[in-house]
């Protein structure tokens, strides 16, 4: 969230310095850019989750569960 906040502040300051006299307009421009970047992060996260969830190990566990088997997961740590 700190990245998104910094982007919003930076864009707001840039808008004010470029001659926007309304603080509300400058804030709106700043948050518009920040929310777009945040949405981009969310899309990338969803794509990564879909790729990682559909991994080979995940498919093997799914098939084993359908057969009624229990596969041992590797120990973490």
Count up the helices: 3
The shape, in one word, is rod-shaped
Please report the distance between the alpha carbons of the first and last residues: 29 Å
Tell me the radius of gyration. 22 Å
Overall pLDDT, averaged?
Answer: 86
What is the ordering of alpha helices and beta strands?
A: HHH
Q: Which secondary-structure class do the elements indicate?
A: mainly alpha
**Major beta sheet, specifics?**
none
Oligomer class: single chain
Number of domains: 1
Number of strands: 0
Helix content: over 70%
Which regions contain 5 or more consecutive residues with pLDDT less than 50?
none
Strand content: under 5%
Provide a descriptive summary of the structure in words:
By secondary structure, the chain is mostly helical. It has one domain (2-67). 77% of the residues lie in helices and 0% in strands. The protein has three helices and no strands. Helix 1 (2-17) packs antiparallel against helix 2 (23-53). The longest helix has 31 residues, at 23-53. The protein is rod-shaped, with a radius of gyration of 22 Å. The two termini are 29 Å apart. The model has no long low-confidence stretch (mean pLDDT 86).
Summed up:
The protein is mainly alpha-helical and 77 residues long. It contains three helices and no strands.
Notable characteristics:
3 helices, 77 residues, 0% strand, mainly alpha
Topology:
Blueprint lengths: L1 H16 L5 H31 L2 H12 L10
Helix pairs in contact: 1-2
């Amino acid at each position: 969230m700190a990245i998104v906040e910094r982007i919003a502040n930076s864009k707001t300051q840039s808008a004010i310095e470029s001659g926007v006299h309304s603080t509300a307009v400058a804030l709106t421009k700043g948050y518009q850019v920040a929310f777009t970047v945040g949405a981009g992060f969310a899309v990338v996260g969803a794509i990564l989750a879909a790729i990682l969830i559909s991994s080979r190990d995940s498919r093997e566990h799914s098939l084993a569960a359908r057969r009624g088997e229990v596969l041992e997961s590797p120990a973490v740590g």
